[in-house]
Write a structure and sequence with these properties.
The complex is a heterodimer. By secondary structure, chain A is of the alpha/beta class. Chain A is built from 30 helices and 20 strands. In chain A, the strands form four sheets. Chain A has an eight-stranded mixed sheet, sandwiched between helices. In chain A, strands 1-2-3-5-7-10 form a six-stranded mixed sheet. In chain A, strands 4-6-8-9 form a four-stranded mixed sheet. Chain A starts with 5 loop residues before the first strand and ends in an 8-residue tail after the last helix. Chain B is an alpha+beta fold. Classes of the chains: A alpha/beta, B alpha+beta. The interface between A and B is medium-sized, with 25 and 20 residues.
């Protein structure tokens, strides 16, 4: 038989099955064609094995660095009904069961990415051996997309690595490198990639791993019904704690694994495929898949192309060594850009070094980095008070004080000290990019590059364009952001750009609600129950009341009455409540920065009457102005489409992923309803803040929604 | 063979700090990497254009064998760039520059990074021979009883460490330490305690003045320090503007406790630091549009009695004057490394006192070396002496002093443990 996607050859009575044949993609996945071939191929293996023509089968990849990245998500996303999805899972389950049932031993030689359906395939082999390459990672990340591993992964993984480890892997979707995979018994051995095929036949025998005393003890302790019940209970508690119970998939996975423990293979697999069908066409999984596609889509630059050649941003510099400057220098150092960090005093520079050092220390603590690596990277940042060496820089990110006049004069001075083709950017969070570069000789090489705080944790970077910026510069910045493993969104110039412009009505409305007598706790809880990582009060503490007030003012000046600031942050600042930065905001913080309860002095600034408000009503008050503003943003062409808004808010603000994004949430609620509620609140709360956006009205009139516009 | 001109494009050094202080956590390579990156950056020279990196270093940190190669790679130089470490005791940095000089002058190289680094703090404590023998015997023993037998030979005294730095500062030939060689010169040439203390006190005040005026800062590149690498050290830790002769007079002689004259106050402290030059051929200067601060005219090394190594500068400068045709008079500035005040005063004597010159086989009296020419920014007594680096550090200081006074020629020289002297003449090119 001939195959187009999988290579089969028999060498010295050993069948070698190679994935990634004729593949043009960087990641080999199990798409429709491959699955069909795989099914045929495994049947052929059975035939030749029955004829005693082979002594064993080795599965490997023809593409270095990728074994199998799992089932094709495009394929999964086309599944329409529960039954269809369940059938889809059964196709894979059958192939893998056939591998497991082959009369000859099988070994999976894993070099590189081995995820989801890829790992489930490997698990159906007698043994897995892995390459010790840094690219090798094994895991079942399905839960992150809101469904259950559907090709027998939940059945076979516990048998390989025990219940506690498998639950940890399946419920968090985390991946293991070859060293860890060896440690937990997932792989039998690790070798340099070039040695895998030669070594594989040595693993045809199912070797009994010699277990350590500790492991034997663990086995005894966990291998009984009472212990297992306890393990499931603990796992469930941990899931509920981490997700507040809003995510369906982990809970469903737990159900499947617990209820079918010890059942026969067909019975177990049936339950697994049923759960797969149920979850993967569910709203949550659809939303998570939606984000996955948004995210994948963002990895490629799709904006206008220039005529000029590609600009390579190799060497970096940052102006201003504050929290953001230090964070950006850290990012550049991790990318081997030997960043220069300039500020006007040595003390200021030390602040930046401290920030970068703190970011690295987290990596050292989590053993993602050795101390030696930290020292080299941290030392690759050169603090300086002059422009020496700036001529070698390709990318400068300005992160100095948010003051237009100062920024303009600093950028002018900078321009004179740079090579002619260096790209200049500003990390401003709210000042006009257009105006900022008006004095530059060559403003075509200037753009906004807005990072979110803290730089090492927040994935979003807004790339802000203006009239004169060259497409080459935008593309170079886009590629650079992707290379830094961040998520870029290209946005037009305008007050607050994308994320802060949508955030501000949320924070502002929160302040109005507090002034109406809603309590801090109720308000924050309403937001977190909706799925936000933190409520508006806590968020204002993080941002700093002074910063929030300043941005609110800029928005008000730029966007008019609907952004009229609530009279609260001023009062807070008068009393010296600036938020986490001085340990006093809506909440109090101890010397370690840990929250220690509500700031009762702040409560006394708020109205005495405690008006309880329905949680749904509070959520509408908080989120409808965001949706309304997002509609205006689309109308103003700040971003090209609704997907960019949703990606921006999820990556920059932590908007709950299971809701698929702000506008997808609005679409799912129905825009007619959204508009109706906005109009209602215009009457009951405030006519300006809830004045329906023209664009929203238009969409409703035309019977469209955000994603169909 | 015709030799080409050799230019010092520019140089920088780390701030100096007494061993165990601010630079204690900085391993030797990191005293050099950032200097190299800086020199490359500030002249916008591509990382692949450098032909070679030559670094002087004595401590040879076990973790970073061939520290020069480590510096080259860490600083981001191309992997193809050759790098090696040289060791000529206290003149290692000068040896690095001298080798670069030869390679550039004869046309084998166009751009070389040359200098020295030394972390005297991180020089190791070692097990003594008894203990190492014991380890060897235990390792050789195959069976447990043999191992136990070998272990029986252990005595607590075996644990006493051998201090690498102490051994390094002891002459392997004469068995006396460097301080004792200074005492010998002081005795033989009749140099008094008061003269030495006066000299040392001046060194501190000159260095402090150079620091306060901001003059010193021009040769220094601030370095990231501290356990968390979040502090910046921009100035030397050492020069004391409140130093007094009275204060110095109170110190007890360190090397000859009873009758000696050499104290820790009139000797240089053990110090961490590094210094680096970008050196270039005329062709490279043209090609990369460089504006060199100086031209390296020539160098010379000369040996003498190891027990009187402090007089090394006398024989080295004598040799270099004769080789190059220059005279002491023509030197606008003179930089002599201050290992010990006694030794510097001895060298000065050798220029004017025929008996002293004769004793060191120097057949020409080069004349008075006036104070206003000598070590105008202070010297190692105040600034410290990071041994691998001092040889290039004094050339850097000399170049900057000539630049500031807009003068032309200068000579830098230093004594070398083991009984040698080294010297370099440069011509200032900054008008």
């Amino acid at each position: 038989m001939t195959y187009n996607r999988i290579k089969l050859e028999v060498v010295d009575r050993i069948a070698q099955v190679g994935f990634g044949l004729n593949s043009k993609k960087s990641m080999t996945t199990l798409d429709k064609e491959t699955l069909e071939e795989f099914d045929r191929l495994v049947k052929e293996l059975k035939t030749i094995a029955d004829k005693r023509e082979i002594d064993g089968v080795i599965f490997h990849s023809l593409i270095p660095g990728v074994f199998l990245a799992g089932a094709d998500i495009d394929l999964i996303s086309t599944l329409k009904s529960e039954t269809e999805a369940q059938k889809g899972a059964e196709v894979g389950q059958t192939i893998y069961s056939n591998i497991e049932d082959l009369p000859v031993p099988t070994v999976a030689c894993v070099d590189g990415v081995c995820l989801g359906g890829g790992l489930e395939m490997a698990l159906s082999c007698t043994n897995i051996i892995a390459s010790n390459s840094s690219k090798t990672m094994l895991g079942l990340p399905e839960v992150k997309l809101g469904f259950i591993p559907g090709f027998g992964g939940t059945y076979r993984l516990p048998r390989k690595v025990g219940l506690p480890t498998s639950l940890d892997m399946i419920l968090t979707g985390k991946t293991l490198n070859s060293r860890k995979a060896k440690k937990v018994g997932l792989v039998a051995a690790a070798f340099p990639p070039e040695r895998l095929l030669v070594q594989a036949p040595n693993f045809f025998k199912n070797q009994q791993r010699v277990k350590s005393g500790k492991e034997k003890l663990e086995d005894i302790l966990t291998d009984n019904m009472v212990a297992k019940k306890l393990i499931f209970q603990k796992a469930r508690e941990s899931v509920l704690k981490k997700t507040k119970g809003v995510y369906h998939a982990p809970l469903k996975i737990l159900d499947v694994m617990e209820n079918n423990l010890g059942k026969s293979r067909p019975a177990y697999l049936k339950a697994e495929s049923q759960a797969f069908g149920e979850l993967c066409v569910g709203v949550q999984s659809q939303n998570l898949q939606h984000i996955f596609f948004l995210n994948e889509g963002a990895k490629k630059y799709s904006g206008p192309k220039g005529e000029g050649k590609n600009i390579d941003l190799k060497r970096g510099a940052v102006l201003g060594a504050g929290t953001m400057g230090g964070g950006i220098a850290w990012l550049m150092a991790t990318q081997g850009m030997f960043p220069l960090m300039k500020d006007i005093t040595s003390d200021a520079l030390e602040l930046g070094l401290k920030q970068s050092s703190a970011n690295f220390s987290q990596l050292v603590k989590r053993r993602k980095m050795t101390f030696d690596q930290f020292e080299k990277k941290q030392r690759s940042i050169r603090p300086t008070m002059n422009f020496d060496g700036f001529k070698t820089v390709d990318l400068v990110i300005e992160a100095i004080v948010e003051n237009m006049e100062i920024k303009k004069s600093v950028l002018k001075e900078l321009e004179d000290n740079l090579a002619a083709d260096a790209v200049i950017t500003s990390n401003t969070s709210s000042l006009s990019i257009q105006e900022m570069c008006s004095d530059l000789t060559d403003s075509s090489r200037f753009a906004g590059l807005h990072f979110f705080n803290p730089v090492n944790r927040m994935p979003l970077v807004e790339i802000i364009t203006h009239d004169k910026v060259s497409p080459e510069v935008v593309e170079a910045l886009y590629r650079w952001v992707v290379k830094c493993k961040k998520v870029p969104v290209v946005v037009g110039d305008g007050p607050g750009f994308l994320v802060n412009r949508i955030l501000m009505p949320f924070l502002n409305e929160a302040a109005y609600l507090l002034n109406e007598g809603v309590s801090i706790e109720d308000l924050d809880e309403a937001a977190t129950n909706f799925g936000m990582p933190m409520g508006p009060c806590r968020l204002m503490d993080e941002v700093g009341l002074d910063v929030a007030a300043k941005v609110a003012d800029i928005m008000f000046k730029g966007l008019g009455k609907r952004m009229t600031p609530a009279d609260l942050s001023g009062k807070m600042m008068e009393h010296g409540f600036l938020g986490r930065k001085n340990s006093k905001g809506f909440y109090l913080y101890d010397s370690h920065g840990k929250e220690s309860g509500i700031n009762s002095n702040c409560v006394s600034l708020l109205p005495k009457r405690n008006s309880r408000m329905d949680e749904r009503e509070m959520q509408l008050r908080l989120f409808l102005p965001m949706i309304n503003e997002a509609a205006t943003i689309l109308d103003d062409k700040i971003v090209t489409d609704a997907g960019k808004v949703d990606l921006g808010l999820i990556m920059g603000l932590g908007f709950p992923p299971f809701r698929g994004g702000l506008l997808r949430y609005a679409d799912s609620e129905g825009l007619t309803l959204i508009l109706k509620e906005i109009k209602r609140l215009a009457g009951s709360a405030d006519a300006e803040r809830f004045r329906p956006a023209e664009y929203l009205v238009k969409l409703v009139d035309e019977g469209r929604n955000f994603y169909q516009s | 063979m015709e030799l080409g001109e050799v230019y010092l494009v520019s140089g920088k050094r780390t701030p100096h700090a007494k061993a165990g202080l601010d630079l204690a956590d900085v391993a030797a390579p990191f005293l050099g990497t950032y200097l190299l990156t800086y020199l490359l950056d500030s002249h916008a020279i591509p990382a692949s254009a450098i032909d070679e990196v030559i670094i002087g270093n004595i401590g040879a940190p076990a973790k970073y064998a061939n520290v020069s190669r480590v510096i080259a790679l860490e600083a981001g130089l191309d992997e193809s760039v050759s790098a090696y470490t040289v060791h000529r005791n206290c003149a290692s940095g000068m040896e690095a520059m001298s080798q670069a000089f030869l390679k550039i002058a004869c046309g084998r190289a166009d751009l070389i990074m040359a200098g020295g680094v030394e972390s005297m703090t991180q020089m190791p404590l070692m097990f003594g021979k008894d203990m190492t023998d014991l380890f060897m015997n235990i390792m050789k023993a195959k069976k447990v009883p043999d191992k136990l037998k070998a272990l029986k030979a252990f005595r607590p005294g075996h644990l006493a460490p051998v201090i690498a730095i102490e051994q390094g500062l002891t002459d392997p030939f004469e068995g006396i330490n460097m301080g004792q060689t200074a005492e010998l010169i002081a005795r033989e040439l009749g140099i008094t305690r008061e003269e030495q203390d006066l000299y040392a006190n001046n060194s501190h005040h000159k260095a402090a003045a150079a620091m306060e005026s901001g003059r010193m800062a021009e040769e220094i590149l601030p370095i990231t320090v501290g356990k968390k690498l979040s502090k910046i050290l921009a100035n030397d830790v050492g020069p004391r503007n409140n130093s007094t002769i009275e204060g110095l007079a109170k110190l007890k002689p360190f090397f000859e406790k009873k009758s000696g004259t050499v104290t820790v106050g009139n000797s240089c402290p053990i110090t961490d630091g590094g210094s680096l030059f970008l050196m270039a051929s005329a062709e490279a200067v043209k090609k990369h549009n460089l504006e060199p601060i100086a031209r390296m005219v020539d160098f010379h090394f000369n040996g003498l009695s190891p027990a009187r190594m402090g007089m090394g500068p006398l024989v080295a400068m004598d040799g270099l004057f004769k080789r190059s045709g220059f005279t002491l008079d023509q030197m606008d500035k003179v930089e002599i490394n201050e290992a010990f005040a006694a030794q510097i005063l001895g060298v000065k004597k050798g220029f004017t006192d025929k008996k002293v010159a004769d004793a060191y086989k120097v057949d020409k009296l080069w004349g008075e070396l006036p104070d206003e020419k000598l070590n105008v920014s202070g010297g190692a007594i105040a600034l410290g002496h990071p041994v691998g680096s001092s040889g290039s550090r004094i050339v850097l200081t000399l170049a900057h002093n000539l630049m500031q006074s807009k003068q032309k020629y200068g000579i830098a020289s230093l004594c070398i443990g083991g009984g040698q002297g080294g010297a370099v003449i440069i011509e200032n090119l900054v008008k």
